Every structure is written in structure tokens, then in C-alpha cells.
């Protein structure tokens, strides 16, 4: 970043960057973390992350606005029943870009859960949440903003998941099938 002096006014120019998103958070109605993915080292320790999450929740959970500036960061957020969704970027980041990520995540989850986005339904489909977030943002770079595409890709990835990424229930079901077929031989 460079600063130019123009008649006692400082203008700071930021280099353009694809690294738009610093974090994506989902907190419950008590401000406790359900999901958090940080894409840089602004808050390197879990203790610092949790303190930031409590601060952000305390500043936003009673307001109707959608954008906040907090600790030098731009925060866009949305609530649904008993959940609070946050997308965080730097202070100079375009709020519309961050809001696009937030809306894509929320709309994708709405379609995947086929009902209201609430804590219980989200906890039952955490693997879908992880896949959706990975489809939308990678390393802070926005990859997708169309919820239809995200849902489609999550469905495709869910059908053909390698063994290392399968859930415990999928592995157990596969093992049961293999045992059943080995006994029937």
C-alpha cells in the first residue's frame, strides 16, 4: 500500500487482490461457534478467534443492519432463527462482494437442507456445510457465487467421495456391505 499526500488529505491505495474473504463464521444464538474458517493469520490462535467471535456477536446480535466495521474489518452478517452467519473481509473490502458470499452460502444451505436454516438441521448436515464453504471460497478467494452451482457440486462430491473424506457412517455402511457379501460367498 502506498500513501499520497494531496492537500493535507491522505489517500491510501491498496493493491487489488483476489484474497477477499478473511473468515466465514456461523454462531448460535448464544454466540458459540458452530463453524469457523479463517483464511489468514489475523487471529492466529483459537483463543484470539474465540474472543473475536464473542466480540462480533455482542456487537451484531441485537441489530437489524447487515454491515459492521469491527476491529478494522468489514463484517457482513445475517441471522436465521437461531443462527448468525458472518463473512469477514478487510476494512477496504467491497461490502457487496462479501454480501454475495454470505447470500450464496445462506441460499445454498437453504436449498440443501430443504427447510429453514436452523441449528439442528445444520448440525445434522455439517459435511454439506463444509463442502459448500469449500465450493464458495478457497483460501480467501471467491470461487462461486451461484447457489445452484454450489448445491449441484456438493451433490456431485457427495456421490463420489474418496475413502479419506467419507463420514464414519458411510465407512461403516460400506464395511457392513462387504462383510455381508463375503459371508454370502
UniProtKB/TrEMBL annotation:
GO cellular component term of the entry, any: COPI vesicle coat
Subcellular location: Cytoplasm; Golgi apparatus membrane; Cytoplasmic vesicle, COPI-coated vesicle membrane
Domain of life: Eukaryota
One protein family per Pfam: Clat_adaptor_s
Keyword annotations: Cytoplasm, Cytoplasmic vesicle, ER-Golgi transport, Golgi apparatus, Membrane, Protein transport, Transport
Biological process (GO), any one: retrograde vesicle-mediated transport, Golgi to endoplasmic reticulum
Membrane topology recorded in Swiss-Prot or TrEMBL: Peripheral membrane protein
Residues spanning the membrane: none
Residue ranges of every copy of the AP complex mu/sigma subunit domain listed in the record: 20-159
The family this protein is said to belong to: Belongs to the adaptor complexes small subunit family.
Biological role: The coatomer is a cytosolic protein complex that binds to dilysine motifs and reversibly associates with Golgi non-clathrin-coated vesicles, which further mediate biosynthetic protein transport from the ER, via the Golgi up to the trans Golgi network. Coatomer complex is required for budding from Golgi membranes, and is essential for the retrograde Golgi-to-ER transport of dilysine-tagged proteins. The zeta subunit may be involved in regulating the coat assembly and, hence, the rate of biosynthetic protein transport due to its association-dissociation properties with the coatomer complex.
Binding partners and assembly: Oligomeric complex that consists of at least the alpha, beta, beta', gamma, delta, epsilon and zeta subunits.
Protein name as catalogued: Coatomer subunit zeta
Primary gene name: COPZ1
